[in-house]
Write a structure and sequence with these properties.
This protein has about 240 residues and is an all-alpha fold. It has two domains: about 35 residues; about 190 residues, Up-down Bundle (Growth Hormone, Chain: A). It contains eleven helices and no strands. Helix 3 packs across helix 10 and helix 7 runs antiparallel to helix 11. GO terms for molecular function: transmembrane transporter activity. It is a multi-pass membrane protein. It comes from Penicillium coprophilum. Keywords: Membrane, Transmembrane, Transmembrane helix.
Length: about 240
């Protein structure tokens, strides 16, 4: 919206239009939201015992690494397209639209499969792994068609991973009264990921004058994240491959 509206109505009104869209969506959501279960007694702000559980800490580490690298492509896909493949600014914006739009249809089916059949952690791990694989695949992109293919698949994988994160915490919590606290703790810790990740990527690109170092950084971090999530699953279920968790 900013890209297309700024030349027509100016930057201030372009931002206001974005705010109006967000306001309408929030009003619509609030009008439809209803509590599914009766509210429970609120727990403490921090549950210190969770930090002593290896599975929870490994899960939090894995999610932090996911979000540390997740938005690298979202922030830099347009810049990469214009600088490396010499697309116009307008065509570069289309990639941002594609990478976000591809995430819309995948979120609900992933949540359904995780809830009914596979378990959220079992679903989360392969999607995070796919994000890491795609980061390494990005290194080989040389044409506009290849970049669009990467954009579509990364949009799907990243959206699926984002959709499954919050639903995984109950799998790590025996006391349901502590779910809210543990979700909040995990969100607080992982919030430093998207806060610093794009800046790390930008610093690597600026220092090396290439996207290669940033792509390797993101791919390796996601690989470590998959390892952490996999170990967390083994701690919870043991060597049982078909366990729903």
């Amino acid at each position: 919206m900013i890209q297309y509206l700024t030349p027509r109505i100016g930057f201030p009104w372009a931002v206001r239009c974005m705010g109006f869209v967000a306001l309408v969506m929030v009003i619509f959501i609030l009008a439809l939201l209803r509590p599914r279960l009766p509210s429970r007694k609120s727990g403490p702000l921090i549950e210190w015992g969770a930090f002593k559980e290896p599975a929870y800490m490994l899960f939090t580490l894995g999610v932090f690494l996911l979000y540390w690298t997740l938005y690298f492509a979202f922030f830099y896909i347009q810049v990469y397209a214009t600088e490396e493949l010499h697309l116009s600014q307008v065509d570069g914006v289309k990639l941002i639209i594609v990478i976000n739009a591809c995430g819309i249809p995948i979120r609900a089916p992933c949540g359904y499969l995780a809830d009914r059949y596979l378990g959220p952690l079992n679903c989360l791990i392969p999607w995070v792994a796919l994000c890491g694989i795609l980061m390494f695949c990005w290194i080989a992109v040389q044409t506009v068609v290849e970049l669009y293919i990467f954009t579509v698949f990364y949009g799907l994988a990243s959206a699926a991973a984002m959709a499954l994160f919050a639903g995984t915490v109950p799998s790590l919590t025996k006391d349901l009264d502590k779910i809210g606290t543990r979700v909040g703790m995990a969100l607080t810790l992982m919030s430093f990921g998207p806060l610093t990740g794009p800046s790390v990527a930008g610093a690597l690109i600026s220092r090396t004058h290439s996207y290669l170092a940033a792509q390797i950084w993101a791919g390796v971090a996601l690989a470590i994240g998959v390892l952490a999530l996999g170990i967390a699953r083994i701690i919870i279920t043991g060597p049982i491959i078909r366990a729903k968790v």
